[in-house]
Design goal:
The chain has 148 residues and is of the alpha+beta class. The chain has a domain of 102 residues: Gcn5-related N-acetyltransferase (GNAT) (Aminopeptidase), CATH 3.40.630. The chain is 30% helix and 34% strand. It has four helices and seven strands. Strands 1-2-3-4-5-7-6 form a seven-stranded mixed beta sheet, sandwiched between helices. Helix 1 crosses helix 2. The radius of gyration is 14 Å and the shape is globular. The two termini are 27 Å apart. The protein binds coenzyme A. The site of coenzyme A has 20 residues, from helix 1, strand 4, helix 3 and helix 4.
């Protein structure tokens, strides 16, 4: 699907986004409270992708700080993965960040998640460092950066 409708998230999206995050991340999920708290944080924004029926199916949460920004989380409902939703969300993020004067966008991704790493590489991110045993699971984190 290429027709994802993207819009800024609102407080009222908390429950729907928490459900997407839980389904996408499984045991590595942040939990509903953290997603809801993120939506209320200053400097944090989220972009929601809706399907043709207007249902939220994916979202990306990010934080800006001066000329740097960080992707906090990106999740797409399992039933609609590999349909370009994350690619659309990343494109919208990079456009918004550029518009806000951001020069570099960072993220951390589980070094074993080859699909996510391919997604980010395709959007212009390159690996810059590795954090050993960063996740509860014991997995390393790969730190990636895109220069705008
Ligand atoms: C990673 C994730 C966000 C990708 O979302 P998505 O909407 O399915 O991704 P897209 O359809 O936009 O994929 C764009 C490209 O990324 C790469 N990609 C995405 N998922 C992939 C996978 N599982 N395996 C291999 N490549 C993958 C491909 O290059 C893909 O292009 P293609 O489909 O034309 O080959 C989704 O799988 C997800 O929510 N996973 C669980 C949470 C997570 O790992 N989040 C990212 C780390 S914070």
């Amino acid at each position: 699907m290429t027709g994802w409708r993207l819009r800024p998230a609102a407080k009222a999206d908390a429950e729907a986004l928490a459900a997407i995050e839980a389904a996408a991340f499984g045991p590595a999920s942040w939990g509903g409270r953290a997603v809801a708290d993120g939506l209320l944080e200053r400097l944090v924004s989220a972009i929601v992708a809706e399907d043709a029926a207007g249902a939220a199916r994916g979202f990306l949460m990010w934080r800006s700080a001066g000329d740097e920004a960080e992707i906090l989380t990106l999740a797409v409902a399992p039933a609609v993965q590999r349909q370009g939703c994350a690619r659309a969300l990343l494109g919208a993020l990079l456009a918004a960040a550029r518009g806000a004067g951001v020069r570099s966008v960072f993220l951390e991704v589980d070094a074993g998640k080859k699909g996510a790493i391919a997604l980010y590489a395709g959007a212009g991110f390159s690996p810059v460092s590795r954090r050993r045993r960063y996740y509860k699971s014991g997995a390393d984190a790969l730190v990636m950066r895109a220069d705008l």
